[in-house]
Amino acid sequence: MSFLTLTNIQKSFGTMVAVEDFNLSATKGEFVSFLGPSGCGKTTTLRMIAGFETPTSGTIVLDGGDITYRPPNKRNIGMVFQSYALFPNMTVAQNVGFGLRVRKRPADQIQKRVTELLELIHLPDKANQFPYQLSGGQQQRVALARALAFEPEVLLLDEPLSALDAKIRVSLRQEIRAIQRQLGITTVYVTHDQEEALSLSDRVVVMSRGRVEQIGTPFEIYNFPATRFVASFVGQLNALPATVVDAGSGRLTVGGQEIRVSARIDAPAGSAMSLALRPEMVSLGEGPEGSNRLAGTVADVDFLGAIVRMRIRLADAVIVALDVFNEPTLKLPAVGSSITISFPADGPLVMAPGSEAGSGTSAAA
Amino acid sequence: MSQTSTPARRRPTFSWLGVVPFLLFTIAFLILPIFFLVVGSFQDSQGNPTLQNYLDLTTEQPATAYKNSIQLSLITAVIGGIFGFLIAVAVILGRLPRAIRSAVMTFSGVASNFAGVPLALAFVFTVGQLGLVTKLLADVFGYHLWRDDFFGGSFSLYSMLGLVLVYLYFQFPLMVLIVAPAIDGLRKEWREAAENMGASSFQYWRHVALPILLPSLLGSMILLFGNAFGAQATAYQLTSGTINIVPLVISAQIRGDVLHNPNLGYALAMGMVLIMAVVILIYGLLQRRSERWLRA
Ligand SMILES: Nc1ncnc2c1ncn2[C@@H]1O[C@H](COP(=O)(O)OP(=O)(O)OP(=O)(O)O)[C@@H](O)[C@H]1O
Ligand SMILES: [Mg+2]
After folding, report:
1. Do the domain assignments include residue B9?
2. Which residues in chain A are contacts of B199 at CB distance < 8 A?
3. Does B292 sit within 8 Å of A99, measured CB to CB?
4. B12 domain residue, yes or no
5. What is the pLDDT at residue A187?
6. Domains, chain A, ranges and CATH?
7. What are the tens digits of pLDDT across the range B105-143?
8. Which of A274, A273, A268, A234 is nearest to A361 (CA)?
9. Which terminus, N or C, of chain B has the lesser number of Cβ atoms within 10 Å?
């Protein structure tokens, strides 16, 4: 019972392929996020759903009807823009009522619906203000109300929070999710902020270079990344250079020290690989029996509030980041002291060495 | 670096000297003339104080001059404004090749400044009695522009209609130039948001784009009005000073030998200064309003 289905969507601008092989089926009421780095095609895909771009090939079906080539003003899909895009010449109430006004609804009906929506976004007293009199967060809430007022079948949001400061970002995203649940509206949310995607979504579509890397629940995406890109883009990740000792028994060396992993290794002895290890999987000390243990020196200690992130130097250019929960009894090792760290054999993933995993979001970089 | 970060202990600077020529220029050619204008307009030819000059403004010639000038300015501002606006919209939003846009902008830059003697002569050479186009129409179509029926009257380049035609030549390019930034300021998202909510193209223009542009549009037309009101050389060259519009009457009164009453000229000029001041004031107000919108 898919409600919104994108099948084999492809979009090229001239010779540039912006989106390729995009397949997605969202159920009614589902909250789906598109997550990926800048330029990976998130906005382009969203704009094809809205009708502002036409796919080069593929189909988009909404509630059983093919809307691939339907003009945007005939789609009944609501959209919230990154830059709010409120009409500066209209009051808040006129902005919110615009969709109903162009549908020629009677004035009293529009008035009633506008009041309803302003209550929903907690701005009932701003009806007669102009956009330039509102803060960014308020403007974006009005934009949300405006996109919902005409009861669209789908709500699209393109990085709606990226122009706002951190505090408001978190509170407003919770508000968006609460309203979405309350209305049960199918929603597609574009972001390059992994925390936003993971915390809001029923399912996340991770994209890279115009392609879908993985579609899954936040839990699946984080814990079982399908590709090395997903592993490195979502969450913090250590990407450690490793050398295969014996693929069959899962033995490798990292920084000259031998470890054993339960993940499958597809490479002969002596090959250079990359060991992907999340900071929260690594602990201080020797750990339980059978753990992998590595000796190193403390390179630095970073106090982040609820957690403390440490960087341990195993060898010259081999540094492992690890997270421990901050508690009053915690004894922090001194920078420069020798230390043993450990992680379970089923902790790391072994991947072919490459540039992406080690760059950007990697904690060890 | 260190100079700008310690403003409290700056060495004395003489860079303000740069504005001195500007100030002198303004005093010599704006403040002083207006001062003499004001004083002169309240004096008779012997230098005695009087209100007669202002009372004389209501006599036939000055009154007609004002009426003609306002009419000419209004007509060319509205027609030139609408025409220029449509061209600017087409060039900026019409998905035309980039080259066309810059070609139109360059043309507008040149044409809007192409007033005065050369413009008047250009029109004489094309649609004057012996002009190229006049002759072409006669030879090819057998239509004699100056003789045959022209929209129910007869055509003359040296009439009000002729002036309207010639003025439009610099009015609409000026409109293109001054309204272009406002059209550029229309954000793509507004159009998309409107479409997204179900608006047709017409509804977008009716409810969003035109209301947003309205202050700039009116402001620009006001500026065109002022532009036409002050234009003098074109009209003088074209009509040899025989047409009765304010700038020509002023120069006739101040310099002329037949009608010589400089003090009446000063009063006429005061009326013009007043009209220009109002024009600038309204333009400023409208501009402020649209800037506030476009900034948000
Ligand atoms: N109208 C267009 N013409 C040509 N290329 C385009 C157009 N729109 C997008 N692209 C290209 O398509 C690619 C995908 O762009 P898109 O805007 O979808 O990325 P995005 O994932 O939304 O990135 P961001 O996070 O920076 O917003 C980019 O390389 C972009 O340059
Ligand atoms: Mg984008």
Report:
1. no
2. 73, 98, 102
3. no
4. no
5. 97
6. 2-231 (3.40.50.300), 236-362 (2.40.50.140)
7. 999 999 888 878 888 888 889 888 888 998 999 999 888
8. A234
9. N
Q: What is the rounded distance in angstroms from the CA atom of residue B276 to the CA atom of residue B284? A: 12
What values do phi and psi take at A264, rounded to 5? -70, 140
Asked if the structure places residue B22 within a domain, the reply is no
Burial class (CB in 10 A: 0-12, 13-18, 19+), B1: exposed
Question: What chain A residue is nearest to B296 in terms of C-alpha separation?
Answer: A132
Structural domain for B67, as ranges: 33-42+49-294
| Rounded Cα–Cα distance for residues A159 and A84 (Å) | 10
Distance B199 CA to ligand 2 centre (A): 24
Residues in chain A closer than 8 A to B195 (CB atoms): 51-52, 71-73
DSSP letters, B235-264, are: HHHHHTT-S--HHHHHHHHHH-SSS--HHH
Cβ-Cβ contacts under 8 Å for B86 (sequence gap 6 or more) = none
Q: Over its length of 296 residues, how does chain B's per-residue pLDDT go in tens digits?
A: 444 445 556 677 888 888 898 999 988 888 898 898 899 899 988 889 998 889 888 888 888 988 999 999 999 999 999 999 999 999 999 888 889 989 999 999 998 888 788 888 888 898 888 889 989 999 998 888 888 888 777 788 888 888 899 999 999 999 999 999 889 989 999 999 999 999 999 999 999 999 999 988 998 999 899 999 888 888 888 887 778 888 888 888 887 666 678 888 899 999 888 988 998 898 888 888 777 776 65
Tokens of A66: 């093919």
Beta bridge partners of A5: A25, A61
A338 phi and psi, to 5 degrees?
-80, 145
The 8-class DSSP code of residue B28 comes to I
ipTM, two decimals, is: 0.82
**pLDDT at residue number A348:** 86
Residues with Cβ within 8 Å of A292's Cβ and at least 6 positions away in sequence, in order, are A259, A260, A261, A342, A343, A344, A345, A347
pTM for the structure as a whole: 0.81
- B294 in contact with A at a CB cutoff of 8 Å? yes
Q: Contact, A213 vs A207, CB < 8 A?
A: yes
Two structure tokens written together for B226: 């002022």
Pocket of ligand 1 contains residue A38 by CB under 6 Å: yes
Taking the centre of ligand 1 as the mean of its atom positions, its distance from the CA of residue A313, in whole angstroms, is: 39
**What is the CATH number for B107?**
1.10.3720.10
Task: Count up the domains in chain B and report the number.
Answer: 1
Element (H, E) at A35: strand A31-35
CB of residue A214 inside a 6 A radius of ligand 1 = no
What is the number of CB-based contacts under 8 A between chain A and chain B? 77
Whether A44 lines ligand 1, by a CB cut-off of 6 Å, is yes
**Count H helices, E strands: chain A?**
9, 20
Choose the closest CB to A79 out of B196, B200, B208.
B196
For A123, other C-beta atoms within 10 Å of its C-beta total 18
Ligand 1 centroid to residue A14 C-alpha, Å: 13
* Closest-approaching ligand to the CA atom of A158: 2
Other beta carbons less than 10 A from residue A77's beta carbon: 24
Name every chain B residue with its beta carbon within 8 A of the beta carbon of A73: 195-200
Are A73 and A34 a contacting pair, CB within 8 Å?
Answer: no
Give counts: helices (H), strands (E), chain B: 15, 0
Phi, psi (deg, nearest 5) at residue A114: -60, -45
* Within a domain: B139: yes
What single letter denotes the amino acid at residue B38? V
